Amino acid sequence: MEQNDKKSNRVVRRNPFYPLERRGFASLGDIAALMLIFLLSSLVSGFVVRLMGCAMPEVVDSQLLYPSDWDLTTCITYVVQMALMLSLTLLYRHLRGSHGPLARLSLRGLNPLLILGGIVVMLSMSVVMEPLLGLVDAEQLPMPDPGEGAWTILSVVVLAPLCEEFLCRGILLEGLRSRYGVTVALLGSSFFFAVIHLHPVMALNAFVLGLFFGILALRTDSLWPSILLHSFNNAVALLLMRTEFPGERFDGRPMSELGLSEMISDPSTYWIVFGVAVLICLRAAIVSIRRLNRVALENALRVHADHMARAEGEAQ
């Protein structure tokens, strides 16, 4: 028996993604099914808010005007959409025969230094990605308006991080992790996270953030870091949309429409900031790859042990 265990461990160490689940939730095809569920949930939520008589935007003189209580409409829309999305996803997962954990909530994820470091890395990532995101024409593809007020804060800063992290870094990441390993789990859950944001700029940003949030979830066995950082990211984005950058040459534009190079008038200072951000991101990437290798091996050994225990139980 001891020789068989040593042989099995040697097999796993040669291939850290073996053996994994052969069936059940979540397969790559399940991601496509979840996309259809998301589309259905979006259509139903839009129908519900119209049936409730909620105020909707109107086109006046070729301009899209939002009603004063648009924040309430967007909040109701999001609540209905995510309630249906999560309910159908859990039902679909049950029908697919999954018995693994829905999410992990280890208290290790509440480490203040980890959260602070995550904020620094996340801000650095936004600086590095800004030139790429700036290629999208904001006039041709304007960002959706979430509204402003208490209902917007509730939906964007509180509900969105909770629901989307539970869905993407909880249900989907855990399902893909048990079947394919951590690499496919990261890529698959991040891809789905990007798809549900729809807008090209938001989708690209969501994919990169999804990788970062997924790494933190795998590293800490907890959703708390990704929930807190997701909330911080959305709060900052909302603040930038509603805050005008001081100075006459900016014409009162909100900070979300300005690039960092516009805000920092001195090119040398901008490139120093950009270079520091690149170094921080590279350092974070190197540390993450090392940690993921360790997590991948631990994941494979855990699944292998489960297989061995199951096989012994069936033999008896």
Question: Could you list some keywords that capture this structure?
Answer:
10 helices, single chain, about 325 residues
Give an overview in words:
A two-stranded antiparallel sheet has the order 1-2. The protein is an all-alpha fold and 316 residues long. Helix 5 runs antiparallel to helix 6 and helix 7 (200-220) runs antiparallel to helix 8. It contains 10 helices and 2 strands; from the N terminus they run H-H-E-E-H-H-H-H-H-H-H-H. Helices cover 71% and strands 2% of the residues.
Short description:
Helix content is 71%, strand content 2%. The protein is mostly helical. Helix 3 runs parallel beside helix 5 (150-180) and helix 4 packs across helix 8 (224-242).
The pLDDT mean sits at 83
- Estimate what percentage of residues fall within beta strands: under 5%
How are the strands of the largest sheet arranged?
Answer: 1-2
Characterize the largest beta sheet: strand count, sense, and whether it forms a barrel: 2 strands, antiparallel
Radius of gyration: 22 Å
In total, the number of strands is 2
Helical/strand content category: mainly alpha
Apparent shape: globular
Number of helices: 10
In percent, how helical is the residue content?
over 70%
Order of helices and strands: HHEEHHHHHHHH
Q: Separation of termini?
A: 15 Å
Q: Unreliable runs, pLDDT <50, ≥5 residues?
A: 5-19
